[in-house]
Specification:
120 residues; Arc Repressor Mutant, subunit A; two-stranded antiparallel ribbon; 6 helices; elongated; WH_DNA-bd_sf; WH-like_DNA-bd_sf; transcription regulation; transcription; DNA binding
Length: 120
C-alpha cells in the first residue's frame, strides 16, 4: 500500500497530473509558485520522496531529472478505494453505503462496467 499523500505531496502530484509531459523540479516549482512560494530544494525533496514511495517516475535528462506520475489520478483513486475496501470493517456495508450515494450517471457507468465484456 502506498499510503496517503501529505498536503505538499498532493499539490505536487496535482501539478504532474495536470501537465501534458514530464516536468523538471523548476517546472513544478513555477506552477506551485503563485499559491505557494517554495524553495527549489523543498520541491526537489518532495519529488525525491514521491519517487522513493513509487508515486512518480524520473528519468535523467542532462543534469536534471524529468518527473512523471507513475499512475494516473484515476488509477491512484481506484487504488485508494480498493485499500479502503480491503481494510477492517464490513465490505458489503461500505459498498452499499457507497452505492446509495452515487448519482444516476455514476450508477449507469457502474452498471455498464459490471455488465460489459471487459469485466474481470
Amino acid at each position: 500500500m502506498r499510503g496517503r499523500l501529505g498536503e505538499l505531496e498532493a499539490a505536487v502530484m496535482d501539478v504532474l497530473w495536470g501537465d501534458a509531459g514530464p516536468c523538471r523540479v523548476r517546472d513544478v516549482r513555477a506552477r506551485l509558485a503563485p499559491a505557494r512560494p517554495l524553495a527549489y530544494t523543498t520541491v526537489m525533496t518532495v519529488l525525491d520522496n514521491l519517487h522513493r514511495k513509487g508515486w512518480v517516475q524520473r528519468e535523467l535528462d542532462g543534469r536534471a531529472y524529468l518527473y512523471t506520475p507513475a499512475a494516473s489520478r484515476e488509477e491512484e483513486t481506484a487504488r485508494a478505494l480498493r485499500d479502503l475496501l480491503d481494510g477492517p470493517g464490513d465490505t458489503e456495508a461500505v459498498l452499499l453505503h457507497f452505492a446509495r450515494s452515487v448519482s444516476e450517471r455514476e450508477s449507469a457507468v457502474l452498471l455498464a462496467a459490471l455488465s460489459g465484456p471487459d469485466r474481470g
